[in-house]
Amino acid sequence: MELTISIVTGFMILGALYAIHAKDLLSSVIACAIVGYSLVICFLLLKAPDLAIVQIVVDTITLIIMVAVVINSSREESYSKLDTQGYVSAITGILIIVILLYFFIVSIQTLDILGKSSLRMAKYYIEGAAQKTGSANLVTGVVFDFRGYDTMGEAIVLVTAVLGVLTILRLKGKK
Amino acid sequence: MTIIVKKTTQLIAGMVFMYGIYVIVHGHLTPGGGFAGGVIIAGSLILVTLAYGGDFLKLVKEETRTTIVESLATILVITIAVSGLLFGTKIFFNNFLPKGIVGHLVSAGVLPLYNIFVGTEVAASIFIIFLSLIIFKEESPK
């Protein structure tokens, strides 16, 4: 299973690289959707069907909106030459990537294998959760019963995002 | 849109809507829950709007009504959370209705009510964002 996840992740990285360097904007928008759909396959391989359902629907809606925005524009990307500022930024970025990769390799050896957890709170949630919350789906029980505050915060963030969109996209009020 | 798209939308949009309601209501039994079902319902509403179009005044009226639905759903979520302070052990977010038998449709206390209201709110939010983008494009001077 780890081999399959690695292949799908490599596909995701290739799609993201193509999205940056494509000449046509419509091609790069569709390459962004490749990243989203490969993530759906990764979620299914890691046994998380709730996340896979949400990710596939949200990615489709985002793709529709992005294509609707791009398809009526000039569809070309404007290029600018690299100057000294660009070279300094690129070298700093590569240095930071190397340093963070080193710390990642050092710290990953102390963690458990992906998928197994040995934390105390995770044990308390998993044992007897069906009796404590009354629901057969453990994810819903954790999201709405044990961690209800986080769900309330997420719902309020969604309302705030809608308020922000409605405020910016109102032309009539500005006259 | 062409007549093939309109006929296909007529046949499919109702089924997608009912599937979204199924995913919301069975949130405590099968994978899914409030957020996933809400986005599926919004997807079916977007499908109907894209296929049939709509004149401008009707879209503005739809948007006004949908904002009312979204605000009411958020207020109801917080009302249920606060009403945990009145029953049983008096804490916020208390699961105070009887828990029932695991695996039945009417079980798990307050969880199905949370799922329904959060699902309605998510569906209304995504539909409002989509409608406001269309209204912005129609309103902007050519």
How would you characterize the overall build of this protein?
The complex is a heterodimer of chains A (175) and B (142). Chain A has 175 residues and is an all-alpha fold. Chain A has a domain at 1-78. Chain A has 8 helices and no strands. The model of chain A has no long low-confidence stretch (mean pLDDT 85). Chain B has one domain (3-139). The longest helix of chain B is centred in the last third of the chain and has 29 residues, at 111-139. The two termini of chain B are 22 Å apart. The chains are: A mainly alpha (175), B mainly alpha (142). The A-B interface holds A 49-50, 53-54, 57-58, 60-61, 64-65, 68, 130-131, 133-137, 139-141, 143-145, 148-149, 151-152, 155-156, 158-159, 161-162, 165-166, 169, 171-172 and B 23, 27-36, 39-40, 42-43, 46, 50, 67, 70-71, 74, 77-78, 81, 93, 95, 99-100, 102-103, 107-111, 114-115, 118, 121-122, 125-126, 128-130, 132-133, 135-136, 139-140.
Protein chain pair with the most extensive contact, residues per chain: A-B, 39 and 51 residues
**Residue-averaged pLDDT of chain A, rounded?**
85
SSE ordering of chain A: HHHHHHHH
Query: Helical residue percent of chain B?
Result: 55-70%
Helix run count of chain B: 4
Q: Which structural class fits the helix and strand makeup of chain A?
A: mainly alpha
Tally of strands of chain B: 0
Q: pLDDT below 50 for ≥5 consecutive residues: which ranges of chain B?
A: none
Helix content of chain A: over 70%
**Number of separate helices of chain A:** 8
What's the end-to-end separation of chain B, in Å?
A: 22 Å
What best-fitting shape of chain A do the alpha-carbon axes yield? Answer: extended
Label the structural class of chain B.
Answer: mainly alpha
Kindly give the count of domains of chain B.
Answer: 1
Number of strands of chain A: 0
Low-confidence stretches of chain A: none
Largest sheet descriptor of chain B: none
What is the oligomer described by this structure? heterodimer
Order of helices and strands of chain B: HHHH
